[in-house]
Every structure is written in C-alpha cells, then in structure tokens.
Aminopeptidase N
Amino acid sequence: MRHHRLLVPGAAAACLLLAIPASAADATPGAPGIGDSYYPSYGNGGYDVSHYNLRLKYQPKTDRLEGTATIVADARQDLSRFNLDFALDVSEVLVGGKKAAFKATGDHELEITPAAPLTSDRPFTVVVRYSGTPSKVVASGFTSWLRTPDGGIAANEPESAWWWFPSNDHPLDKATYDVSVAVPDGTQAISNGTLQSTSSQLGWTRYNWRSSKPQATYLATLAVGKFDITTDTTANGLPVINAYSKDLGDNAGAARASVERSAEIVDWESTVFGPYPFDALGGYVPNVPTGYALETQTRPFYSPKGFAKGANTSLVVHELAHQWFGDSVSLKDWRDIWINEGFASYAQWLWSEKEGEGTAQELADYTYASYPADDPFWKVEPGNPGAENQFHDAVYDRGALALQALRNHIGDKDFFAILKGWTAEHRYGNASVKDFVTYAEKVSGKPLASLFDTWLFTPSKPAAAQARAAEVSPAKAPVRPKSWQRIQDTHSAHGR
C-alpha cells in the first residue's frame, strides 16, 4: 500500500498543477504483465489498485453471473492505455466517468484506452460492466470456477479472479474489497472478511461483505450455494463464520470437527506468529469434486476430500497459518512460494509438537531419512522450484526442513523472535525469500546464506556432514511420527 502526503502549494501553483494533464505524446501504455518470473502475463503495469467494489448478481441454476466492478487506482506513469486481467464478456467500460474503448486480447487481458491519457501519480476510477457463464469460460486451458449442485465457487491459486471480477491479478497489487452479491432467496453468498448487511427484495437476497485489510486477488473468494452456517466469536471478540454445504454426505461430520476448531487454532498460532492480522476468520466446505484447500483470506476454502479420512485439524492449521504467511505477508514473485508454503507446513510441525504427535525435530529427522539421495524429491529447490513444481512435496517437506535447520542453528529464542518479527515487519506487504534470509541474519547476528543455499537452493540431498551440522541427521532410522501421514495428506490437498 502506498501513502501520499497532502501538499498545499500556493493558489497559483495549485491551479498550474491542476491544469497540466498528461499529454497524448508523453503517455505510454501500461505493461500487459507485472513482470513475474513464472507468470509474465499475470498482473499489469502502470497503475496500483487501492480498492475493488464489486456488485454482482448470480443465478445458480444457469451459472449466470452479472456484475459491475468499480476499481479505484493510482496511475504510476502517464498512461495512454492499461490492461486488466479478465475473461468474461464486457459490455461497457468507463474511466473517470467517461466511456473508454476496450478490447479483449489474449485469453485473459482486457485492454482499456481511456478518452484522455491518465496522469502519473493521480487517482482514477474504472467501472466495468460484464456478464458470463464462468464455468464455460476457458483461459490458459482451464477454468478456475467450480460448479456445485447448488451454486458456484471461485477459489484457486495462482489465479481465480479472471472468472468473476476484472483485476490487477498479482499479489504485488493488494487492495481492500467490498463484495455485494445478490442470489435467489434460500441461497447464501459467502466471501472474505465481515458480513456488513443482508437485504431481500423480489425473490433475491443481497449479501454485502467487506475486506478492510489489503488482500491479494487470488485470495479473494466467492461461494454461492445452500450452506449450514455457524457463527461465533474468538476470545478477543473477532467474528468467526464457518459454512458447510448441506450435501457433504459422509464427510460432513469430519469437516465440522476440523473447521469448527478454527478459533482455537488461530488463538494458538497468535502465540507463535504474533497478533492475528485480520478482523474476521472461519472457513467453508462446499460440495466440490476437487481435492485441494486454499488459504482464501480470513475464510479458507476446503474441499470435502480433505476430510475423507476423518477429522484433519492439521489441514486447518496449515491454511490458517497462511493468514500470516502468504496472506498478510505476501510473496513478491511466484518463485517466492516458500515464504508461503514452507512456513505453513512448519506450523503443522509445531502443532504436532504441541499435540504430542511428534516433535518438529522428529519430523525433520524422518523427512530427511525418508527420501533417498536419488529420489526426485531432492531435485526440487524450494527457494525457486519452478512454476511446474510450485506445489511439489519438496516445497512443503523440504521447505519445513529448512526452517528446522535454521531453528537448530540459531536456537529457539532467536528463531521464534524471527517468526513474530517477520510477520510484524512485513504486515500487509510483500516479501521474498531473499528478504527473509536478510531478516534472519539481522536478528540472529549470524551469516546464514550457506545454510539456506543448502536447504533451499541445492538440487540434491544435503550431505551427511551438512545434515549433522543442522542437527537433522539421525543416528538410526527414525520412527515415523504419528502426525506424519496427516501432514502428507495436506500436500495432496494443495495439488491443483
């Protein structure tokens, strides 16, 4: 988020400033991608969004979505045109209240040319009117919109926004949100943050949700269907909203037994990672055929299959840990996925330790011993796994192993100070793997580049001497910790 000082120049200077718009000759197009190393076409250049206001109407029977998105942004250059990431049909675009020219390019780019160039460092507003059937729209070879027997769901990573609202679709451009959704009476609409109000008229009920803290586009979610909804508050008074499709079948009990512990888990994680960064929490389990879970901000998405083997609080621990690691502190580039997944996986190790199901050290020992040196597991570098391996087991297991190696090297006092300090220093911002290494060195006072190179950036199993130095080389084959399989199940729950 950027903050601007309000300068008050003399009247003549003020008039002069107001009188100089961007000229057509000086203005240039914003880049069609934000510059991500894995996904160069994701996000856009030339502007920064501060707020999305989405007013939607969705008919579950036909999967028809109609919407008006109002986007508040600041120009970062003199803009002759700019792009939004979007895949549905657009009927009208206004920029600054004036009709703008627009056209679809590629499979998820909406290219907009305003009536006059936009001036750098000045705010502007875009209104986009659109409609479509999200489940039938294919971009980059797939759709991220999930159909259920009674509605539809937007939840995926690294992209899901294209199918329900136009955006600058990259975690570098976080914003606040107001999401207002009208659905037929008897159906609910669930999104992020706090429920501000509901109203009914002529057979339709409108739900108004607000996310008041910066939120990445892939963490915005929409769930429409018929849910059983539970509400509560945490010990600190935060609202807890959980929702379960009414047709979960045999998985219903295990899902509730897991997700209903969200407040307890957040209270525990707050003691380890620092204050919870948002103003609401919960989770939802729709009747979808997928197997993955996702840390959608304040209200994680869980597939029923995540609970097919029974209650799985470890999965809930993982998704809620992401509220600190991934949601509040978001990656700068998708190659930095370790600062999301490595930490959320290590939270499961700490939960296992707390629950007496295996210490983090025992899990580290077992992880190291479980994969022989020639296993492809060691070929993946968690610090830069490649787009094709973003959700590989190594990013989770080896990623958590790197944190245990760090903990052993610098001691518990500095290690846990780093976890809290990191989430405080980068709260609501973006960071990289390199940023974390630098921060850990600052807090511990020790050079750590070699340690991280060994555990995050070497495409081979760390040698026995290196493992002994990190205290993760067991003298004999370790016993499998009780929590191991549940933690492994989380990996498949993150497969896309």
Remarks:
- Residues 64 and 133 are 5 Å apart (CA to CA).
- The chain has twelve helices and 22 strands.
